[in-house]
Write a structure and sequence with these properties.
It is a single chain. The chain has a domain at 77-215: Hypothetical protein, domain 2 (Endonuclease III, domain 1, Orthogonal Bundle). Helix content is 44%, strand content 7%. The protein is built from 10 helices and 5 strands; from the N terminus they run βββββαααααααααα. The chain has helices at 60-68, 77-90, 95-108, 114-117, 122-129, 138-158, 161-165, 184-195, 203-212, 224-235; strands at 2-4, 16-19, 22-25, 43-45, 51-53. The strands form 2 sheets. The chain has a 3-stranded antiparallel sheet, with no helix packed on it. Helix 2 packs across helix 3 (95-108) and helix 2 (77-90) packs antiparallel against helix 6. It is globular and about 50 Å long.
């Protein structure tokens, strides 16, 4: 497979390090699957001639996620809640680690049904901390349960989580920028969520959520999935809802 340069160089596959509390992209090193190190990896051309974003080729699970999920617009409240929570669990880890555990997370957190998660108590937290199939991090577990309650508050105000999240979609006139760890829109989303009491929702986490749920299309130019996502976004009608009270 050939790595090709010249476009944007980030994605859910890139780990980020912290230095003085700031997220920094990890250096692109040769990984266990033998993808050559490259300071600006963009596209990978596979043997069948298909071009894909560089970050998805190291694992079949990652490739399917890239081709079938990443960037396609989502309006389902439970899926949105699941993703924002799993992005919180990813902090300090790679998304592939979380993706491999996603089914276990869904089982442990009742499909991320926030109407049921609000009923969890300390007994449930201890059970989750003993579950080796998920990331056993007390603060992240507690954040998920806290965020379930905060989700109900947003729905009471906006009618749905989707109506709330999609108001942060960048406008059509927003100029494209190189894919980076955060944007002005993700900073606003993060700040708004934090003001509402949500946890583990920093601007980098918020941007990864926006990328995955289709609020932006960050497939690299030339990636076979970019046009598919663009068509899906063009046909998508963001839910507007209405603020109550």
């Amino acid at each position: 497979m050939n790595l090709r340069n010249g476009a944007r160089a980030s994605g859910p596959g890139s780990r980020r390090r912290r230095r003085n509390g700031v997220h920094l992209p990890a250096q692109h090193r040769q990984d266990r699957d033998g993808v050559a190190a490259n300071p600006k990896p963009t596209l990978v051309r596979e043997k069948d001639g298909t071009d894909r974003c560089w970050w998805c080729v190291s694992d079949p699970l990652y490739l399917a996620y890239h081709d079938e999920e990443w960037g396609f617009p989502v309006s389902n409240d439970r899926r949105l809640f699941e993703k924002i929570c799993l992005e919180g669990f990813q902090a300090g880890l790679s998304w592939l680690t979380i993706l491999r555990k996603r089914e276990a997370f869904r089982k442990a957190f009742l499909g991320f049904d926030f109407t049921r998660l609000v009923q969890f108590d300390e007994t449930d937290i201890k059970r989750l901390l003993a579950d080796v199939a998920i990331v056993r991090h007390r603060k992240k577990i507690e954040a998920t349960l806290n965020n379930a309650s905060r989700a109900h508050e947003i729905i009471a105000e906006f009618g749905s989580l989707a109506a709330f999240f999609w108001q942060f979609e960048p406008g059509a006139k927003t100029p494209p920028t190189p894919m980076i760890g955060q944007t002005e829109e993700s900073k606003r989303l993060s700040l708004d969520l934090k003001k509402r009491g949500w946890r583990f929702v920093g601007p980098t986490t918020a941007y990864a959520f926006m990328q995955a749920m289709g609020l932006v299309n960050d497939h690299v130019e030339g990636c076979h999935a970019r046009e598919k996502v663009q068509r899906a976004r063009a046909a998508f009608r963001p839910p507007t809802g209405h603020r109550r009270g």
